[in-house]
Design goal:
The complex is a heterodimer of chains A (112) and B (112). Chain A has 112 residues and is mostly beta strands. Chain A is built from no helices and 11 strands. In chain A, strands 2, 4, 5, 9, 10 and 11 form a 6-stranded mixed beta sheet that branches. In chain A, strands 1-3-8-7-6 form a 5-stranded antiparallel beta sheet, with no helix packed on it. Chain A starts with a strand and ends with a strand. Chain B is mostly beta strands and 112 residues long. The N and C termini of chain B lie far apart (36 Å). The chains are: A mainly beta (112), B mainly beta (112). At the A-B interface, strand 5 of A face strand 5 of B.
Amino acid sequence: GENVEQHPSTLSVQEGDSAVIKCTYSDSASNYFPWYKQELGKRPQLIIDIRSNVGEKKDQRIAVTLNKTAKHFSLHITETQPEDSAVYFCAAGEGSNYQLIWGAGTKLIIKP
Amino acid sequence: NAGVTQTPKFRVLKTGQSMTLLCAQDMNHEYMYWYRQDPGMGLRLIHYSVGEGTTAKGEVPDGYNVSRLKKQNFLLGLESAAPSQTSVYFCASQMGGGLEQFFGPGTRLTVL
């Protein structure tokens, strides 16, 4: 069946450095790729998403890139801050479908 | 506008007991979902609904039942709880395919 692989499972970076989380998907029909952030003890919340008609999208310090040929997409966080510490989930879906296929999550640790 | 709410927030059950988790949303969303989240395993879809009166199985439906009698409510039932069902349960709702899923605050369930 469809699956989404997410790497790394844990990422530790120095405050101020950049962080990159990568996901690969198997379903070539996927055309919607959201990223969710889950702080400790809280609910997941959407931070950015991208659709297959664009290759990159930015929102302040956060960017997502998509390579449809290789079936992978990445989350880039620049100038990391302590509040970026959280678990990040990627997901993939087909626009008219109801379900998202989720990655297993990446725990991002920002070291002071 | 409360968004997505879940009742209860915490619950401890004994093996074999039953319970119902309630999810409510006030955003007039068509789609609703129940996920479970276990350490290191991300979000796994239990059941979902694409409209009032409809339900469908997700990735891990065994041991759970659901009902969507009203558009704003989605109930998750455990008929005979097992320790393997110890988890954090999240409800989510979505306006349509390829759009943001809004999550509830979660229910932490422990089955002894």
